[in-house]
Amino acid sequence: MLLKQIMKRDPLTANDTDRLGDVYRKMVAAHSRHLPVLHDGKLVGILSERDILEYRAKRDIDEDWWGATAAAAMRRSPQTAGPDDSLTEAVGRMALSKIGSLPIVEHGKLIGLVTVTDVLEAEVAEAMH
Questions:
Q1: Do 12 and 35 touch, CB atoms closer than 8 A?
Q2: Count of domains in the chain?
Q3: Which tens digit of pLDDT belongs to each residue from 55-89?
């Protein structure tokens, strides 16, 4: 199975200059735990719920973490995959790196996102056939 068969196309994204509070609200509203972060349309990072909580935990209790930028909490230069990469290879990379998502990039452009949930749903669907 190829990643293009299970990836979520045109994923929800954030800009690196977006306020972290706004990004968090966007994630909650979309029931999303991972958000690719762009700068001038180019993938520069990925932000997870865990990254936001970690950033928040390192701040002084009175510090306005909501006003920080997405760039302050994101993981830079995220691992990526291509749409024609195999699911097996991607799952192996995700497990070894202990990451919950892979942005899918084609010709330098973000086109999709694959999460652990997508992988599990694909495995269950395949097992049911």
A1: yes
A2: 1
A3: 988 887 777 888 999 999 999 999 999 999 999 99
